[in-house]
Amino acid sequence: MCYKLSRPPALLHILAGYPAAELAAVGSETGGGEGRMAPRGRQVTCYGAAVLLAAALLLSAPDATEAYDSLDPNGNITIKWDVMHWTPDGYVAVVTMYNYQQFRHIGAPGWQLGWTWAKQEVIWSMAGAQATKQGDCSRFKGNIPHSCKKDPVVVDLLPDTPYNMQIANCCKAGVISTFTQDPANAASSFQLSIGLAGTTTKDVKLPKNFTLRTPGPGYTCGRAIVGKPSVFFTPDGRRATRAFMTWKVTCTYSQFLAQKTPSCCVSLSLFYNDTTVSCATCSCGCRNPNGTNCVNKGSPHLGSAIDGPGKWTGQPLVECTSHMCPVRINWLVKQNYKDYWRVQITITNFNFRMNYTEWNLVVLHPNFDNITQLFGLNYKPLTPYGPSINDTAMFWGVKPGNDVLMQAGSKLGSVQGELLLRKDSQTFTFEKEWVFPRRVYFNGDNCVLPSPESYPSFAENASPVTKESSG
């Protein structure tokens, strides 16, 4: 699968930090069938729910937030809490989580949202999600609340949930895509009826101590801030209603909080050299002397290890390797033509517990301004340093071919894609490791690159130019 670009793609302004009208007009240049053309400036229009959700994401994007990553300075998860109706002892609210991160999504087994009530509130009922624990509801004799926990934790429902328990934008098993890859699924909503909470905007107290787990750590949430009440339009757009009260919480991500060790590594290969620069030993940790922190493929204990305690917490169960990483990315400089050069990217999964659905890869390389053709990959340029610098690209798989990276042990435990890049006579060189990436991210986490001194010497391996090919 591939698409051609008649010239380098337009530098697209995406997500927060730009005017909504400008963002709404931006098109998407994504892959199609073999040889499909994607002219510069082509716009793809999404219909129905995708349009409404995309508009909501753009119009409600925060102006400025804390950032942990220079490649995505405005990236965050924003939680919006809208009080929609008053009840005899509280209110009904719709809570929506918007993913404003360009290349970090929430994958399986999904999000877990928690908070602490300011008073003695209880959750009478929920739709689109559920509290993980009911807590002590012994003080209630008749109608028993859904949860009496002072600090409830809420999880999404599964896609096959009965319709009478669903609301719009719910029930995705906790998976939230990035706006770049799938804007129609870049948010998640649920509804809850709160009791013992006050029945006016003056009586309601905001929850505090918000936490977001996915399901492991990594996100830090700020305090709830009351803002302008949200406005909602009927499907025909002829009537507008608004929430009685709205507050927002912003959660930002840190890879250092998410895990103590990296989660991916990079190996490098050259078409004219048999030597492969492997992932560095212990890139993501080292094997225990007794081998208890990894499992060999084909081990008789593999099944019981997969179903062990870490299954429900998202803890990786990795194959025993020298690098001990759940994921390895190989960057192969595959061919060298007169005016172009070709790169093959292979992603291999060594995690026995995880299928990486809707995976994505972010790579930094100075030649990305000259991407000409892609095979088996979707592509979007990222410009965190301004439109004049186009050296950062986001790649992801083409549905339904290679958009899922199957778990270790599967025949489909790796995916591939290729790039054809035009040579810039003023910058292109095989010297000083120029053809290798500067940084690589997998699903938003920074991967470990080999040590520069381990790279093969280009000077000693002069590469002949192969016959010009159409690619």
Keywords:
28 strands; mainly beta; COBRA_pln; disordered N terminus; COB_C; COBRA-like protein; glycoprotein; 471 residues; signal; 8-stranded mixed beta sheet
What's the structural blueprint in terms of helices and strands?
Elements lengths: L1 E3 L15 H5 L11 E2 L11 H11 L17 E11 L2 E10 L12 E5 L5 E6 L1 E3 L21 E4 L30 E9 L12 E6 L5 E3 L3 E3 L3 E3 L6 E3 L2 E9 L1 H4 L5 E7 L2 E5 L24 H5 L20 E10 L3 E10 L6 E2 L2 E5 L6 E5 L1 E6 L9 E6 L6 E2 L8 E9 L16 E4 L2 E2 L25
Parallel strand pairs: 1-2, 16-18
Antiparallel strand pairs: 1-22, 3-4, 3-15, 4-9, 5-8, 5-10, 6-9, 7-8, 11-15, 12-15, 13-14, 16-17, 18-19, 19-26, 20-25, 21-24, 21-27, 22-26, 23-24, 27-28
How would you sum up this structure, described in words?
With 471 residues, this protein is mainly β. The chain has helices at residues 20-24, 49-59, 255-258, 302-306, and strands at residues 2-4, 36-37, 77-87, 90-99, 112-116, 122-127, 129-131, 153-156, 187-195, 208-213, 219-221, 225-227, 231-233, 240-242, 245-253, 264-270, 273-277, 327-336, 340-349, 356-357, 360-364, 371-375, 377-382, 392-397, 404-405, 414-422, 439-442, 445-446. The strands form six sheets. An eight-stranded mixed sheet has the order 2-1-22-26-19-18-16-17, with no helix packed on it. Strands 3, 4, 6, 9, 11, 12 and 15 form a seven-stranded antiparallel sheet that branches. A five-stranded antiparallel sheet has the order 23-24-21-27-28, with no helix packed on it.
